[in-house]
């Protein structure tokens, strides 16, 4: 299987019972493909309340606070959209944080969220939704690793950011001690990978997608996107 990012040759690990795990030998990108006949994990209320209850019961508040400080630095009026907002944990945190500067909060997800004062929730596929406005901050947390078209997703995030805006993407650190341990344990038949998840190390793709048109550096160069 060719790498979906650079087209280079990839090695495949078939030992996972539900997905093929790929690793590009050229750019280092890691990706997964659900095996034929394996049903995709349902994405409904049970996904948050039962299947992954432990994850959603312990949100990354330190990360949320880092994003809140970015909001505090925004000139008013600011606006933030969370793409792949899940159950809206980040948006609820920002809405309830008294120290935050006034900011219009929007969340997009395939799952439905109920009405919430001060937060606009939009249900749908970010590739198909017609959102005819831009935001000062575009956030996507632990979502890009579930997307098949990573390049298209990064371009969509960038398009949602207004000129000079900020795009914040958080994803799996495939080189972390935890993931190295998981790969080692998999050699002995112990599988720790989440069921039916699309796992991708997307650092090179994110950098390429967020480069400003005037240089070869990622958006962090400080120049407007």
Please name the defining characteristics of this protein:
single chain, 225 residues, alpha/beta, Rossmann fold, 2 domains, 3-stranded antiparallel β-sheet, 7 helices, 22% strand
- State the name of the first-level CATH class of the largest domain: Alpha Beta
Low-confidence stretches: 193-205, 212-225
Instruction: Count up the domains.
Output: 2
Helix content: 25-40%
What does this structure look like?
With 225 residues, the chain is an alpha/beta fold. The chain has 2 domains: 1-39 and 174-210, no CATH class; 60-171, Rossmann fold, CATH 3.40.50. The chain is built from 7 helices and 8 strands, in the order βββαααβαβββαβαα. It has helices at 45-51, 53-57, 61-72, 89-96, 150-160, 177-186, 203-209, and strands at residues 10-13, 19-24, 30-34, 78-83, 103-109, 119-123, 135-141, 161-170. The strands form 2 sheets. It has a 5-stranded parallel β-sheet with strand order 6-5-4-7-8. Helix 4 links the parallel strand 4 and strand 5 (103-109). It starts with 9 loop residues before the first strand and ends in a 16-residue tail after the last helix.
């Amino acid at each position: 299987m060719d790498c979906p990012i650079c087209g280079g040759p990839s090695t495949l690990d078939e030992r996972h019972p539900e997905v093929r795990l790929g690793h590009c030998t050229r750019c280092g990108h890691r990706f997964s493909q659900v095996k034929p006949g394996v049903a995709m994990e349902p994405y409904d209320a049970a996904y948050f309340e039962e299947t992954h209850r432990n994850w959603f019961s312990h949100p990354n508040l330190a990360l949320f606070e880092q994003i809140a400080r970015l909001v505090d630095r925004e000139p008013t009026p600011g606006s933030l959209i969370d793409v792949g907002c899940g159950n809206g944990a980040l948006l609820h945190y920002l809405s309830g944080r008294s120290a935050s500067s006034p900011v219009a909060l929007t969340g997009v997800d395939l799952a439905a969220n109920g009405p919430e004062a001060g937060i606009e929730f939009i249900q749908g596929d970010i590739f198909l939704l017609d959102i005819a406005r831009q935001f000062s901050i575009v956030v996507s947390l632990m979502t890009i690793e579930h997307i098949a078209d990573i390049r298209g997703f990064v371009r969509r995030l960038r398009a949602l950011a207004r000129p000079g805006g900020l795009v914040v993407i958080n994803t799996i650190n495939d080189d972390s001690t935890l993931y190295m341990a998981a790969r080692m344990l998999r050699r002995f038949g112990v599988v720790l990978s989440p069921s039916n998840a699309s796992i991708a190390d997307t650092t090179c793709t994110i950098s390429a997608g967020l480069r400003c048109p005037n240089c070869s550096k990622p958006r962090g160069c400080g120049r407007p996107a």
